[in-house]
Write a structure and sequence with these properties.
Elements (H helix, E strand, L loop, with lengths): L3 E3 L6 E3 L1 E4 L10 H13 L4 E3 L8 H10 L8 E6 L15 H15 L4 E6 L8 H14 L2 E6 L4 H14 L3 E4 L14 H8 L2 E4 L30 H5 L5 H8 L2 H7 L3 H10 L4 E6 L4 H8 L8 H11 L19
């Protein structure tokens, strides 16, 4: 069964593998298949579920809410996010203004069929709204009981520090950061992770398998497998293209002996790798088939020896992206 970890300096425990439904639910897979994946997650002990109002333009929240209907609410940890537009593109349909936050949480609660969410996350930093306005709105949601904890996604180290300072003044639990993180994408290590440790925030990382690159299924010199994310022009291809380089694909293939030595698949190795970072509370896994959930769950609790962690670094070498400035690129400078 999947292990639990504390989220930030809070008393909240979440499963170190968290099921996420970005791209898949209400998009790549039919609702029945999505529900089967959620059931598989529950079967292996995953109780933490991550979504966002923008995923499939609100439909992903609806699918997750329906899939979890009938489960004991107190035994689940449900996370969602606010920032990106979900309406027709009106002047206030995006961002972290008080208006958009208040309207968005009520829509999310309705779609998720719950009275509260355990973690509500600012999906990006809003440069056009005073941070005080955003954090004050979050505080009102916490104090009303509609939100238990606050988090952010793809914020810089300085933004995390500023948010944490206001959260402390407002007496609300600011506990998490949700960045991209994998063997190939380590931009949080030099600045975001130290700042997060400083203020009591954990990472809930997305794309630990680098959009599927670290499964090893994409081979150098070969066309992407039919039906893979790299061939999905609707959503997946644009996110994976940065990793579809011959030098990256070649080096990833050299990770296979390390995975074999540990008795892991390549995907399990990639997920276990991010969990070696003690500031990571959870790795978000997605799936289009229940068996993927069951396979990925085997990464929980794996300890990778230090010498193998060093070998991984040596194998990947200079194809690893480490520039902290790449975090700023994750969100718009203006809405």
């Amino acid at each position: 069964m999947v292990n639990y970890r504390y989220l930030g300096n809070s008393g909240l425990k979440i499963t170190e593998l968290t099921y996420g439904n970005w791209i898949t639910h209400a998009s790549q897979v039919e609702n029945a298949q999505a529900t089967a994946c959620v059931r598989a997650a529950l079967d292996v002990g995953i109780t933490s579920f991550d979504t966002a109002d923008v995923y499939a333009n609100t439909a992903a929240e609806e699918v997750l809410g329906e899939a979890l209907k009938g489960e004991r609410r107190e035994s689940l940890e449900i996370f969602t996010k606010v920032f990106w537009p979900t309406g027709p593109g009106g002047a206030n349909d995006m961002g972290l203004s008080r208006k958009h936050i208040m309207e968005s949480i009520h829509g999310s609660l309705r779609r998720l069929q719950t009275d509260y969410v355990d973690l509500y996350q600012a999906h990006r930093y809003d440069y056009d709204t005073p941070l005080e306005e955003t954090m004050s709105a979050f505080a009102d949601l916490v104090h009303s009981g509609k939100v238990h904890y606050i988090g952010v996604s793809e914020w810089t180290a300085d933004q995390i520090r500023a948010g944490a300072a206001l959260a402390k003044e407002l007496r609300i639990p600011f506990v998490s950061s949700q960045p991209q993180y994998s063997m190939l994408w380590r931009v949080i290590e030099d600045e975001v992770v130290p700042a997060s440790r400083e203020v009591g925030v954990s990472q809930i990382v997305w794309s630990p398998v680098a959009q599927g690159i670290l499964t090893g299924k994409y081979k150098p010199g070969q066309a992407p497998p039919a039906g893979s994310r790299a061939t999905d022009e609707k959503s997946g291809a644009k996110f994976i293209e940065r990793f579809m380089r011959e030098d990256i694909l070649t080096r990833v293939q050299h990770l296979r002996p390390i995975a074999d030595e540990l008795g892991l698949t390549m995907a399990q190795l990639a997920i276990a790798w991010v969990l070696q970072n003690s500031n990571v509370a959870a790795a978000i896994i997605g799936a289009s088939r229940p068996e993927q959930v069951r396979d990925n769950a085997k990464a929980s609790g794996v300890e990778i020896p230090a010498e193998l962690m060093t070998r991984i670094d040596e194998v990947l070498g200079d194809v690893v992206e480490r520039d902290p400035a790449r975090t700023v690129e994750a969100g718009p400078r203006s809405r």
